[in-house]
């Protein structure tokens, strides 16, 4: 097994999961990929960033909607794969980018089904960051400047979209304990505490590696 | 806030969650309650251990079944509460025992909705221990001597019963990340590693306490 480790981070909206990943990457001195994946996938494929940005963490729309919008099936096959909804094609391209980045060395990848995409690698630690709604609403207002009277709705809808995306492209369930190796309440530990807890997990995992329960 | 901490541990069957709790309690030098709760609840209430043992982590049967079995509604009101299924009455008695034990000092409590029962206390850390089915089956055969060809079925059915019990008596969902403060894959860390990771969590939580995300 490689001594490199890829940390994937799923997260509830407003839980600070992105910031946990960033702090973890800084502490370990390794690359961090979140929205960065959009630009890299665009560069890898020669397609526009806007295309990836628009599809980011969204499951393919219903076939009916896709037909109406004219993106199912692909009329031109411009992306090299025909008869496949646009979002699915973009997902495949982004998957390749994620696999390439993961093969290049230790890193932190936020969202985008990275845990599922990298399921055949043995040097991946899959994490989920969550927090109670009160804490998330507070953070959404403070950090993302979401209007206070809309913050709860924004959190719940974002989570629903992330769950839909994840459950559509994987055979796992978003937000279930068994989907991840470690899940953490960021309201209990804070951003820095979560990053430290993940570092502790990685050390214990390396010490135990492969010995089962 | 008290400096005492109560650790509650939910667990998939075969994940070694009970052993994680026992190891944690030994490391911290605090009491450990799993099956022990049956004898204590019996002593507290003056009822027989067999009664609690039979109802242990089982949700109330359907009303139809209860009627057939003659335990709904209680004919005699022998337990001091009438018109309530037997298992619900035993659950209430066990809840009182759990609250009393938790109020007496630091301890580890396995299963039995303890996290939900203690939801109004602020010195509780709620943990879920899980592992992939392969590891759990292996452990069930090795530790509980479950026949190899039945082990998978035993694991899945036990989980189903635990989920039913938990979801029936709480307003939370068994096995969902957001139900717990920390969840861990025991196949990644082993028993000892899980206990150490929980101790690390508690330290980071004490340091951060109450500051939100």
Keyphrases for this structure?
homodimer; 213 residues; alpha/beta; Rossmann fold; 5-stranded parallel beta sheet; 9 helices; 5 strands; globular
What is the structure about, briefly put?
Two copies of one chain form a homodimer. Chain A is of the alpha/beta class and 213 residues long.
Plain-language structure description:
- Two copies of one chain form a homodimer.
- The first copy, chain A, has 213 residues and is of the alpha/beta class.
- The first copy, chain A, has a single domain, classed as 3-Layer(aba) Sandwich (Rossmann fold), CATH 3.40.50.
- Helices cover 53% and strands 11% of the residues of chain A.
- Chain A contains nine helices and five strands.
- In chain A, strands 2-3-1-4-5 form a five-stranded parallel sheet, with helices on both faces.
- The two termini of chain A are 19 Å apart.
- About 3% of the residues of chain A have low confidence.
- Strand 5 of chain A pairs antiparallel with strand 5 of chain B.
